[in-house]
Protein 1
Amino acid sequence: MGSVKIGAMICYNREFPESATILMLEGAEVILIPNACEIDETRKCQLRTGTYENMVGVALTNYAKGTCNGHSMAFNVVSSKGKEWISRSTLIVEAGEEEGIFVASFDIDEIREYRESQTLGSL
């Protein structure tokens, strides 16, 4: 596997799809997002869409209930069964409203293989 290319953006950058696209074009394989606002279905859809469009893993951490509403989450661009891609933009972790430690695992080799198969190696 070797090194992993990580991109980072703050919560407001999440509102603009170009932010994730620029990180991906610069080589990011996983994007990390510290967040400080309420998470609702629209924002969850933004993350899911950005994951799919940019073929990256995305992990967002948010303040728990009291400051915000929690719901830290992570999406992986692909899930596979052997060589068959079975879904895209998969929610792999979603926390509730309370504080906690949550772990999201990204198979970087799988992300790289998926990106290669979808872009003919142009990234």
Protein 2
Amino acid sequence: MISTGFNRPDLSCGLDMIATDRTKIHIFYIILLSMAVLTTHFLTQLTTGTSLKVAAGCLILVVSILRTEAALYILILSMLLSPEIKVAGGAGRDVVLRVDDILLVIIGLSWLAKTALFKEMGIFRKTPINRPILIYAVVCAFSTILGVLFDRVRPADGFFYVLKYLEYFVVYFLVVNQLRGGEQIRRFVWAILITGVLISIYGMMQIPSGVRVSAPFEGINGEPNTMGGYLLLLISIVSGFFLTAKTQKTKVIYMGLAVFFTIPFIYTLSRTSWIAVIPMVMTLIYFSYRKTVLIYFVILAVALTPIFAPKSAKERFLYTFQKHHTKSIVVAGVTLDPSSSDRITSWGRCLNDFVHHPVLGYGITGYGFIDGQYFRTLVELGLAGLVSLWYLMFVVFREILKVYRVCTRPYDKGLALGMLAGCSAMFMHSLGANTFIIVRIMEPFWFLVGMVLILPRLRMAACDDEEAGS
């Protein structure tokens, strides 16, 4: 059942909701008891290690059913603190699942179970971006099905990757269905920021070794671009809060967090992430009411960067334009490094091959690995996929801007402003990375999008409650 909109009754997602119907309470506990008995019998047949993993999964399932909010906190902590498991390989890439992928499946299944039992809840809350999400999802699925039928896509690879492309939207719908008040949003935001602090500490611990900073469980070489995009999203959020804060104490806290996230961000040595800072700052300047302060700060930062930037960052920047023995590409009279040259060469190859399947592309995983979201989308999903992705991004930005303009509370405006800057940064980051399919960036991104877009409805509901109480 699909909800008709935001204005449905304010039903709790936990035990309070269950208590509204005695018959359903009995059914609910009978199901839980049956699950416990079957699980206990099943665990006796497994090894100790496997039993503990299954038991943990069952515990999270029960927690998700009883208290979805608690399960979402677990999901937030697992976003960048979870290992990965290879489940398939092919088409020049591996298909991997992380603990947060599994958690998301468990939480999603628990939500479906509750909606089946309590049909008045609805599965999807009506939001302004439901239609763009649906269009993009249909294109992903249909293009990949065609790829399988014409033997361009291995079924297992295509199936798992389509699921990974679409699982981030499950995060979004879980958030907009779960949130019931502004205090919940504050708690979730702090959970995301605290997770970012833990990740930043981990990143700082890597700096003395001289390696490029990356997130935990990213393999031997790590994924600095992923870490850079993730930290840039957090920097955008705390910058938005800083620019709308009313007290000096609050400003100091958010400024401290911005500096704390910036240190490992610089040491990712991710040029794609560094470039994405430009649209982030421009968005903050354009939409913020404190333009003068921000402009002075940017001028000061630009002036001091050549002096205080670490040696490794300077070398990384200069490396882009140095001459190399290997074959390099010349752009506007500038010779690029081998890495940048290879990336641009792969983009040219995409444009040449895209014309063979221009409408729906080769299907997800049907072409091979391409490092660049827009070119990858173009060759995998064709013009239909690229247009649907751009349409989705446009609507997300437009709706967040609407929220920023209608909200009056500083905290709400700060969160919306931060996400406007974050969206701009991610749009640029996508030029040199597969940003919109990277789980460690997209899970917090869609979590934050859900919180921003639900803000006006929550404030309206709070005002209605106050009027009813008076």
Protein 3
Amino acid sequence: MSVAPREFTASGMAARTAAILFVFVIVFTGLLSAAHQWTKPAIEASAAAEKLKLIDEVMPSADYDNKLLGDTLTLPPTAELGLEEPTTLYRARKDGKPVALIFEAVAPDGYTGKVNLLIALRADGSLGGVRVTRHKETPGLGDYIDPRKDKNKARPWITQFNGMSLANAPDKDWKVRKDGGRIDYYAGATISPRAVSRAVLKAVKWADGQRDELFAPPEAAR
């Protein structure tokens, strides 16, 4: 009776193990891919719903009738908006006519860093709304710029910008009262509102300077 050499047996076991692992990886990868494809529509729908929920805070859905997520422009990094990466601008319309632009901006000089903003600018040049979407301002002091953390639920600080425009508010009005403007602030916490006020004014001026291009119909924008 002959006995297979030990090295042959070991190499055979190694090859068999490698084959099993290879099959396992292929099957596992296939299952992951199938799971991703199966859940992708639900994930995308959820992300779209969250995005529209946030947009609704600055531009109510009743004010427009187009598919907002399909009427967009990709903005390149834009210094006037404090943007270092490309972002998406949304265009609201009703009966085919421009209603508002919804876009992001960043105040780079908050008390503890950047303050991310979502801005709705109506076709008449007035602000539909402004929201802070991300910040690291001092809890209990500078975070009142965020309506979710502002204790004044009846009239959150951020709503002071509603209705303001370059036509009805000169540059000096876009400052906190301490600096001669009309924007209220909380005593001892002026850096955050100053940063937001400056960023909002710069964003409004940027949009006003190219309103024809930004409000153009999708066909004309291509």
